[in-house]
Amino acid sequence: MVVTPIIIITFLFTDCYKIANEYNISYVLKSYNKWWAYLSLYIFFGIILTSLAQNYTRNNLIQAFKIPAGSMLPTLEIGDHLLVDKSIYKKNRIQRGDIIVFPMPDKPELDYIKRVIALPGDTIEIVNKVVFINGKQQDHAYSIHRDTRVLEKGTSPRDNFGPIKIPAGNVFVMGDNRDNSFDSRFYGFIPIKTVKGKFAQIYWSWDRKSSSVRWYRIGKSSK
User: Fold this and answer.
1) pLDDT tens-digit map of 91-135
2) Cα–Cα 20 to 30 A to 175, which of 7, 27, 77, 216?
3) Which of 108, 110, 98, 105 is nearest to 69 (CA)?
4) Does 91 share its domain with 147?
5) How far apart are CA 61 and CA 200, in angstroms?
């Protein structure tokens, strides 16, 4: 998106130059007809158009995010850099299994990324870490449990939760790293209208521990 405005500006200046030559009219140069003046205009309008294009893209089309924590392991690793599609839900409905970005309900300045587990009208229940949707046990092959303990109902909602019906206009989200995720089990439902977008693809991945690029992760998508 940075290149596009530069191409547009270059085309406009080139086109103006061609038109001026076609008319072949004698013109007395003014004090402002200097190369540095035109270069300044080129840079000025290039910066403005680039900024507008970037803002539009970030707000309406696609935005980059970085994974700072391990709540979505093993699907998303710490140091993964993602592209999030911000236009997909303008024409499509959220589906179970979608990995979405949304603002924290009580801290809207913070963006979280989790997986949609239950949709409006669904009834969710968690029994000894096993998820049930509408009474049917779910086989979430992407999820992991690293804590062998099972926390009893009443002490924590982590391993035993519900049953509860998802209200209209909301979804229930969880992290794939089930024993180490702060999600809807703790802070409740996520209003669909606040969802910013869906994880699309990993475009960069950096392992801080080994100070190396995870080349095998680049290009991985949500499918």
Assistant:
1) 999 999 999 999 998 899 999 999 999 999 999 999 999 999 999
2) 216
3) 110
4) yes
5) 11
129-180 confidence digits (pLDDT tens): 999 999 999 988 999 999 999 999 989 999 999 999 999 999 999 999 999 9
In a domain, 222, yes or no: no
Q: How far apart are CA 44 and CA 150, in angstroms?
A: 61
CA-nearest of 189, 192, 132 to 163 is 132
Domain span holding position 100: 67-217
Q: Are 103 and 112 in contact (CB under 8 A)?
A: yes
Q: How many CB atoms lie within 10 A of CB 84?
A: 23
Asked, for residue 28, whether it belongs to a domain, the answer is: no
* 185 shares a domain with 140: yes
Which helix (H) or strand (E) segment is 29 a member of? none
The catalytic residues are 71, 114
